[in-house]
Amino acid sequence: MMRALILLSAAVILCRTALADDMPVPVRLGDGGELLYEADERGNTVPDFSNSGYSGGGVPLPDVPVRLTLEPGEGDDTERIQAAIDQVSEIPLDDTGFRGALLLRAGEYQVGGTLRVGASGVVLRGEGSGEDGTILRATGGGQRTLLTLSGEGSRQEVEGSRVAVTDDYVPIGARSMHVEDASGLSVGDEIVVVRTATEEWIHTLGMDRIPERRDGGKVTQWTPRAYTIQYEREVTAIDGNEITADAPLVMSLDQQSGGGYVYRYEWPGRIRNVAVEHLRGVSDFDPQVTAKLGDDEYCADEDHGWTLIRVVKAEDAWVRDVTSVHFGYSCVWTTSGSKSVTVQDCACLDPVSRISGGRRYSFSANGQQALFLRCYARRGRHDFVMHARAPGPNAFVDCRADTAYSDSGPHHRWATGTLYDNVIVNGNALNVRNRGNSGTGHGWAGAQMVFWNCEADRIICQQPPTAQNWAIGCIASDRSGDGWWASFGEHVSPQSLYRAQLRERLGEEALGVLTRPE
Known about the structure:
Layout: E1 3-8, H1 10-15, E2 27-29, E3 35-40, E4 66-70, H2 78-89, E5 100-104, E6 107-111, E7 115-117, E8 122-125, E9 134-138, E10 145-150, E11 156-157, E12 163-164, E13 169-170, E14 176-178, E15 190-195, H3 199-205, E16 229-239, E17 242-245, E18 253-254, E19 260-266, E20 271-283, E21 290-293, E22 296-299, E23 307-312, E24 314-325, E25 330-334, E26 339-344, E27 347-349, E28 363-365, E29 368-373, E30 376-378, E31 384-386, E32 391-397, E33 400-402, E34 409-410, E35 415-421, E36 424-432, E37 446-452, E38 455-461, E39 470-472, E40 478-480, E41 484-486, H4 497-506
Parallel strand pairs: 1-3, 4-5, 5-8, 6-9, 7-10, 8-20, 9-20, 10-23, 20-24, 23-25, 24-26, 24-27, 25-28, 26-29, 27-30, 28-31, 29-32, 30-33, 31-34, 32-35, 33-36, 35-37, 36-38, 37-39, 38-40, 39-41
Antiparallel strand pairs: 2-3, 11-19, 12-19, 13-18, 14-17, 15-16, 15-19, 16-17, 21-22
């Protein structure tokens, strides 16, 4: 059972000096192996990130039976593969929520367009992500996504279901809150917990006065409407007007900063139980298009395949054992509208593009409750990156980047609740900070970010007003920032926070889900 130790006052937190080395580790193992959480006087703790991943984390990825098989063909295979996907999509769902897998036999398939899985219960499977496995080759020009897992429509609020949160303050890490009337809610309901924003809160952050850029580029100041963040949850318990959700809050609900409310939602067009596994994507490019980085010349063609896989409007999805080669933007991108996605044992190798903004985001996320496990990037820029206003929890676990041309971390505009657990960035930095007028005014990139036993050339960990960021057990040759630093230069126990939290929530057997397949 998790217990919170109320040890630190808000005054101590706010008055500490930058780079304090004596801050306590905010989560530790008790004598009985349980996790002990230190909290400030308002009850804020490091959140539990173990709900990140397929079906809410800790659930084995299914082995779905093959229903249709294709062999490599001659010429462009786009229409032939899409027709096969559509054929599997017409099979009725079974009792487990699946239709079946389309197996692409080993060999090369030329794809001059875009493929789409648009029905629940469909898995696209190859026979390996190596050079002798199943290869989808993005042929021809045009920046495009090669494969999307994509539903339709948008999340809809159930009319009359909205109820206000009545607590003066619901702390970071909490799962329970009081509402004005819980009679319209039931256990199992899918809800959205909304954290509203106010002009006063934005002013406290300094995000209504982001400095102008020297080059005259546009800077967008933050507004309350744009920073009202919505977190999808499921009701697990109701006691009077107190409701409990399956995953914790990763941003406090404070009546002085706008408070919050809850509503039930429906999304009939969102698909679920969809996946891509065991294949390799390779993008053609023009090697004659070059640019220079210092004295080094490199290929900078940008008229070719851009992202291998996008997960869009999909829930309970996974991508495993997939490698992308030469795509200009990303291997896997979990976009807004995706939820409970696992991306594991994937690699993003040697992107071809200019080495500049908006490119080489190897593993990219702005959905919620995604787990990136044992992912590898080479010659990317923002390799493990959160986008604007991404609602957590999300987690990157046991990931590594080599020859990184820029930093990993939340990139811009208040992503909340991401764990970087044993993430290594070779050649660059791991950062959570105020990015000021970078881009069109990125400002505070993230809050409630946890760097746990990470390594990088440099680490920046800054604390936003009204929020917190933690760097625990991290190793780097250079660091800065006034965030929560503990045990810098020496790893801490537990070695993996995600695994410890998963074990605490579901038991030792749940850790088997995270074992690397043989």
